[in-house]
Description:
The complex is a heterotrimer of chains A (about 100), B (about 625) and C (about 170).
Chain A: H1 5-25, H2 29-54, H3 58-88
Helix pairs in contact in A: 1-2, 2-3
Chain B: H1 6-23, H2 29-54, E1 58-68, E2 71-79, H3 81-104, H4 111-130, H5 134-152, H6 159-190, H7 195-201, H8 207-225, H9 233-236, H10 242-251, H11 256-263, H12 265-268, H13 272-293, H14 299-319, H15 323-350, H16 363-366, H17 368-382, H18 388-403, H19 406-434, H20 449-453, H21 455-464, H22 479-484, H23 494-519, H24 529-535, H25 540-587, H26 594-617
Antiparallel strand pairs in B: 1-2
Helix pairs in contact in B: 1-2, 1-4, 2-3, 2-4, 3-4, 3-10, 3-15, 4-5, 5-6, 5-10, 6-8, 8-11, 8-13, 10-14, 10-15, 13-14, 13-19, 14-15, 14-18, 14-19, 15-17, 15-18, 15-21, 17-19, 17-21, 18-19, 19-23
Chain C: H1 2-22, H2 26-46, H3 50-74, H4 90-113, H5 128-138, H6 140-165
Helix pairs in contact in C: 1-2, 1-4, 2-3, 2-4
Amino acid sequence: MIVPFEHLLVLASLLFFLGLMAVLVRRNLIMILIGVEIMLNAAGLVLVGASALWQQVDGQVLVIFLMALTSAEVSISLAMVVYLNHRKQTVDVRAFNELRG
Amino acid sequence: MDSRLLFLLILLPLTGGVFNACFGCRLPRALVALLAIGAIVGSFGVTLLCWPLAAEGTQVTLFTWLASAGLKADIGLFFDPLAATMTLMVTGVASLIHIYAAGYMEHEEDQARFFALLNLFVCAMLCIILADNLLLLFLGWEGVGVCSYGLIGFWYAKSENALAGRKAFIVTRIGDLFFTIALLWLFSLLGTVNIAEINQRATELDPVLLTPLVLLLLGGACGKSAQFPLMTWLPDAMAGPTPVSALIHAATMVTAGVYLLCRLFPLVSLSATGMAVIAAVGALTALYAASCAVAQREIKRVLAYSTMSQIGYMFLAVGVGSVAAAIDHLLVHAFFKALLFMGAGALIHLAGGENDIYKMGGLKQKSPLLFWLFLIGILCLAGAPLSGGFFSMAAIVFAAFTRGDGFLACLWGIGVFTAGLTSFYSFRLLYLVFFGSYRGKKTAHRLSPLLIWTLPPLALFGLFGGLFNLPHFYGGHELLGAWLGSTPAKELPLVTELGLLVLMSLFFVAGWLPAHLLYRNFEVEAESSWRRFLLQGWRFDALYEWLVLRPYRFTARFCFIAGDKGLIDGVVEGLGRTLLHWGGYMRQLATGQLSFYLQGFAWGLLLMVGWLLLKAVV
Amino acid sequence: MATYIFYILGIIAVVATAMAITRRNPVHSIIYLVNSFFALAMLFYLLGAPLVAAWEVIIYAGAIMVLFLFIIMMLELSPGERADRQGPGPLQWLPVLLLGAALIGCTLLLLKLDPAGSQNIPTWYASPRDFGYVLFHEYALAIEIVSFQLLFAAVGAFYVGRAGGRKEAGGIK
């Protein structure tokens, strides 16, 4: 390891927190998805760091799965965004409140 | 001869009934009637064929019906002299009535339903008679109840008919409840439901328990046989078609109670109190029904009350310990009462559907043959000397007299007095219907020959039925009594016996004379409150309405309002309302805003991380 | 030295991400995010995962971000360019340029430090050979499952896209 693992964790947490902020604060569906991407990447960073810490390949393998998962998620979500935009001509999450009780 | 042939007795009507029920509506009318008649006549034939089996009593088991934890009930028959006699009577009378019904129901709708029910009724009745255990007997017992219900309400489109059916069903059901309790109690005491075994081991029972047991059995018998206090259903049951009244409510089903008591006589006779109550119930019902019959206007209701009264006699006979007299009267009564009912049906046809005897009259000219046949029935009913009814009734009255204690002497007095009343109302009926001039306005319907020609055999049996059990006094041998294996009646001094006979004859004449004077040239009868009281059957219906129905309805209403609406609905709806109320608060959490939900995730994450941190620190 | 590069890259990633999530214009966000992902890829390399680093660039910065960009443009989600202006001002392009320059600087520095990749800068690293061995030996079943997931995602996306296209016919049933 070229840096202490704690520093790496701090970096990953920062990134994760930024992603979470994007998810919570932004009203644009696209931006929320971007926030999710950021969080997933932060998780990937921790996995790779762990892989380096214990010198095992498994962490990296998990990152590959993470990427596959992310691409699947993104393709579906973006298709949904297109569909929702078709319905309401907007991507503002406040417009989609049909689930209100 | 294979004794399993006996099952044909039950299976033939069952098959006929089920077949008619399933396919009857697609068959031609004549075929439906023919099938039903064939099944019953076949059953009658089998009875004759199996007659020799009865002499020493044949027990035959088809298969075990129920067997669990000590309870063992077979589909098994017991064909002894008592059962054989009853079977012969039931199948014989039923055959004639089926033939009669084919004529009577010629133009009715739903013939298939009628004959299916009639066949099923015979099947159930034979089940009662032949069952070798109380459970199978109970099956038949309920079966006749159901068929009776269906047949009383046969013309269910008129609501009063349906109501009469319901009344009969419910009132008999009260009796059935007593019978059920008795049955279960007997099983718990003796561990068996087999009738022969129960009778054999009856002496093992605690004498203290015997009386309530007998009273419970009496309750069941009272319900089916329309005895006091469960007698109110029988007059209303006349709403059914006349063949039904003849078969079910005169000849067979109503005698099931008597049969039950006879069947369990070894058990019943052990309780002196029980016997006394049975005798008292019989005598009181006989008097009550006879007094009601005096004022009735509908021909079938007169006969219904007379049936009740005659069955009262049978109960009296059982109560004084003379099974042979009870069965003898049962048989003779079945014949002449079926005859009277079928004759009444023909008369109603003849009067154009009118059943008020005040609007009949002078029918003798219209059909002399019917008059003579009906006269035979009336003579038997009234107990005219030397007719079948006279002998059987006299046997009962003798039996009551010979026992000779004060209580029975009192009942004997009631019985003799009732005989006079019976004679009076019988002749009142005869005079009102056949003598004088025709008072009705309706024109006669055509009489199917079937309606007439099924009557003579019944008249014959009714008239000479007494000969079967002719006492030694007349040079007879008490054949029926010997066949049933009961102890012959105690010999009385010749003078006493003669005196009793003369007394009976006197009461017969005492009944006949006023009827002759009052009703020979009847025009119109004055209304009186006394007469109305009798017409309404001593207002027992009103009494029960007041005593039972009102409190029942009140309780039901109370249960409905306080229990169902207040308690159950209150709890259920209150729970629902509370949940709804809180749900309203919960609902505000579901804003539909995606970011709000995501915040939920975030807070959850924070909580989890916080928890982990806390654990790491502490 | 490599440690400093690590921290610099970390700062680049955080700054680029922070810029990405605060932009009003989604296209700008995507550009910053691509920067951030490049920095992450470099970090992966430094942590001894060259293959993952390559995929980070190809899949994340390449495919996924391009997909985002494509959707944003297709739905015309970015505020339109104003006719009276020449293009984005320096406030808009300068930060991304600086970040990009810093990234390139780091890359060049790393290349200079270790031209042949033999100086043991990642103290341990998983060669693609080792990586592939583990992946297809121990995780063969997972690979199958993930590939199915991708297939389902493709089918789902196709269906949702078609349903969205047929809005007039009633949308998703």
